[in-house]
Amino acid sequence: MRANLEVLALVLGFIGLVGTIAVTAMPMWRVSAFIGANLIVMEELWEGLWMDCYRQANIRMQCKVYDSVLILPLELQAARGLMCVSIVLVVISLFFTGCGTKKSNCCDDNRKGKNITLALAGGFYLLSSLTTLIPVSWVGHTVISNFYNPTVLESQKRELGMALFIGWATSGILLITAVILLFSYSKRSSKEEESYTDAHLMAARDVQKEDIVYLGRTPSSFHKHQEYV
């Protein structure tokens, strides 16, 4: 059962890696909002972490990389760094998960080393879930706040893009993966403690039996005196 959970964690971790890379690369973090009296549905604007894309009627999508990071709002600047950190954390987590599984040859037969590796993988998955959730939620909060802010011009208002929804789903997958690995680690630790306790009790019983046998074979001084007489 635990081996199946570890395989499931590997699969979910790989899905989380694909999700974090897709969210980081997608330009659909903020999309144009079709509101107001002067509605122009034939134009569409996408804004991402690295570029913005513009499409007009009967014209292909044209994307342009940002000339400077400083022109981006604060939430998108922070999202760039956090999403890159999230990708690195997921890669490290996948490596540790592969080494911590029972069927892997990593750490040989060192159970304690594998348990520590599995716990580290769960911790890194938990951190990657947070580093994905924070920028996605921050950008989503800013988009919603500006959308309902009457002081913001209608042409500058945006809606939630597809990348944000994928980011929330990816963060949930990473969180589930972390819970699975930490659960497996707790089960392994409890099993090791039980085996250690059983071994300690068996050793204590063996010592007691040896003492009893030794005392039983030792003749008393009174018995020796009777034989002498």
TrEMBL record:
Transmembrane segments: 7-29, 78-97, 118-140, 160-183
GO cellular component, one term: bicellular tight junction
Name assigned to this protein: Claudin
Entry membrane topology: Multi-pass membrane protein
Gene3D superfamilies in alphabetical order: 1.20.140.150
Keyword Transcription: no
UniProt keyword Transcription regulation present: no
Matching PROSITE patterns: CLAUDIN
